[in-house]
Amino acid sequence: MFTGIIETMGEIRESITEGTNLVCWISSTISDSLKIDQSVSHDGVCLTVDKLAPGMHRVTAIEETLKKTNLVGWRAGGIINLERCLSMNSRLDGHIVQGHVDAEAICTGKKVLEGSWEFQFEFPKKFNLLIVEKGSICVNGISLTAFAVTKKTFRVAVIPYTFEHTNIGHVEKDSSVNIEFDLIGKYVSKWKDSYQRH
Q: Residue 158, Cα to own-chain centre: how many angstroms?
């Protein structure tokens, strides 16, 4: 379980395809504090640490994960957002994030404003019931607030701190990002659908 508050950024040092899996070595300031079998959010994707080296950790993404995320595009030199799992004595500064990415979204617009940045993303229309105006949305692991929500687009505003301390600054028009919709919204949507059928 995560909060969507990014701890640090990591650099992809190596990205290798092994069968249908993608194996990546990541270097970061938190890698030395990680343990084998620990869950870490990588651009919003919950991946398990399976190997360690000085200043680096390794993760493996399986085919199911690759189908729903932008990890297939990971290359050496890429910068990703990292967050360790929530500890039970921590404040929940963002929102409840599982690290279970629902889909990819495409950036369809980026505006530089006076003191902030605004991004627009397009997502698969089948998820439109899972996002609401001023609701929480997780973009590349970052907890953000959605606004100007339509059936297949939403916008987010980014403050300077987030812009400087995450990889959102690298997102440009046509960039692919990982999105996870709000967990509570998913349960409400399922309950409503089940209720209507009965």
A: 15
Contact 127/137 with Cβ under 8 angstroms?
no
> Which among 175, 179, 99, 103 has a CA at the least distance from the CA of 138?
179
Question: Where in the chain do CATH 2.40.30.20 domains reside?
Answer: 8-84, 103-184
Domain with residues 103-184, CATH architecture: Beta Barrel (2.40)
Name the amino acid, one letter, at 146: A
pLDDT digits (tens, 9 = 90+) for 141-177: 999 999 999 999 999 999 999 999 999 999 999 999 9
Q: Got the DSSP string for 53-93?
A: ETTEEEEEE-HHHHHHSSGGG--TT-EEEEEEPPPTTS---
